[in-house]
Structure formats: C-alpha cells, structure tokens
Amino acid sequence: SASSHQPSVCVMASRIEPVAPARRSSRLQRAIEEMGLLGLEPEYARDLASDWFEVSERDLPASRAELQAAIKAGLGKLCRADATLTPRDALTPRMIAIVGPTGVGKTTTLAKIAAREVLESGRRVALITCDTFRIAAVEQLRMYARIIGIPLRVASSAAEMREALAASRDYGLVLIDTPGLAPQAQKQHESLNTILAVDARIERLLALSATTKTEEGLEAWKAFEPLGINRLIFCKIDESIRFGSLLPVMKTAKAPVAFLTNGQRVPEDLVGATPENLVQLFDAIPSNN
Predict the structure, then answer these.
(1) 94-282 falls under which CATH superfamily?
(2) How far is CA 201 from CA 34, 93, 141, 179, 197, in A?
(3) Contact 275/81 with Cβ under 8 angstroms?
(4) Cβ contact 142:114 at 8 Å
(5) pTM of the entire structure?
(6) Radius of gyration of the chain from Cα atoms?
(7) What's the DSSP call for residue 89?
(8) pLDDT (tens digit, 9 = 90+) per residue, 205-215?
C-alpha cells in the first residue's frame, strides 16, 4: 500500500537533503559566473542557468570545460534560426515588415536585404515604406531603391497600404519599412498595426540592436509582441563584443532569428542567421582556464 512506502521516502529525503542543495548551489553559482562572461546580467544568468541545468540537479558540470560544454548545449537549444525569404507560392509574394524601436537600423537592414536578394538571387523586389514621420527615412530608402533599381511606394494609411500591396503583387518579395517606435508609444503601435493588418500574410520581423540592455530588449519585445512577431533581427553586432543580453529576449520571444547585421555597407554587412553562427556569436567565453 502507499502508506507502507512512505517512511523509506522520508528517510531517503532526510539523507539526501542537506548535501545536494549546497553542492548544487555552489556549482550553480559557478555556472552563473561563467554565463556572466557571455554578457548576461546576474539575475538573467540565474534564470537561464536554472533552466539549462535543472535536468541534472546532482550532476551539474564540475570542471570548467564541462561547464562550458553544458552552456554551449544550452545555447544550442535556444538558438533557432530562419533566414528564408522565398515566396510561399508562385502567386503570392513574400511580404515582410521590419518593425522595432527607433535607431536600431531598420531602414539600412531593409536596403541590405533588398540589394542582396536582387543582386544574388535575381529576385524581383518591391519596397514600401510607412515611415512617413521622418522625411529623411523616405529619402534614404528612395536613394537605395534608385541605386538597386526597384520600386518604392509610400503608404501612410491602411488604404494606401492596400494599394501599394496590390501594385506589388507581381514581385517575389515585398519589403516594408516602418517607423521606429518607442515601447510606450501605444497610439503609434495601434496605427502601425492597423496598416499592417490589411494583409494577414505580412510577416513581422522585430529588429533590435545588439547593444541593447536585456531590460530594454524585453521591454521592446513586450511592446511589439501584439503585432504578431514572427522572427528577430539583431543589428549592429559590430558595435558590441558580448551578446548575452539578447539571450533572455530570445528565450521570451521563442521566435527564430532571421538576420544579423555587422556594419554599414549595403548589402555586404548582412548575415543570414544559422543555429551555428548564433551559438558562435553568443559563446564568446575565453576558454583559457
């Protein structure tokens, strides 16, 4: 009966209890310190460490090499990538809007993707911008469109977006630039959502700067999540050395990373994300013991 098993469980528990947590906590502490080297702030490192190492309470890696291997395995689970831009079918273009906070590099990233697709894949690309808040942004994109030799349409309302999409339906890829929005700008988020909602097939890629602190990144994710984010883009990876601050965002977002940008050059400084290059990016632990 269940009651006859009860005492032995208690005996076992009392025998194990005092030893395991102490050992676990010191090893967990080492794991947290090691993850701090990735650029993770302590409270987020703790959160991820208990996530990655909870499976093996008693056999938390003992040596530094084992610990680093375990961190790499944890990164491997977290680092999902999807850089596909191919049309879904012969009749429908792939429609992608890049959204994000101000100043992360959305417009340049859009131009890089457009130029690369035209030059390397010979794909027919059309640009649409709904960033009519900044004249400079429209002009910058117009210049890129002219150089690449592709059309640019401006859409500042849902009706204009519908028109612009209809005019672009013979293209393989339609890229949509959007205004940079502060996380708190509720009204602008709603009006952007109204414009993008004219076609449910428009994918939303959230662009974040690699220099973003974890808290800002999570705040941006929370603000843009209602738009229905499909993938992430990490910009300006040339401006930072450690990228751990982005890991909690990836964990929360559960969205794959599409691209990394690492400079100003169009289109050279654009890298399609892969699980391998993401792990490499984050796993910048100096391995001298």
Answers:
(1) P-loop containing nucleotide triphosphate hydrolases (3.40.50.300)
(2) 42, 9, 23, 20, 9
(3) yes
(4) no
(5) 0.85
(6) 23
(7) B
(8) 999 999 999 99
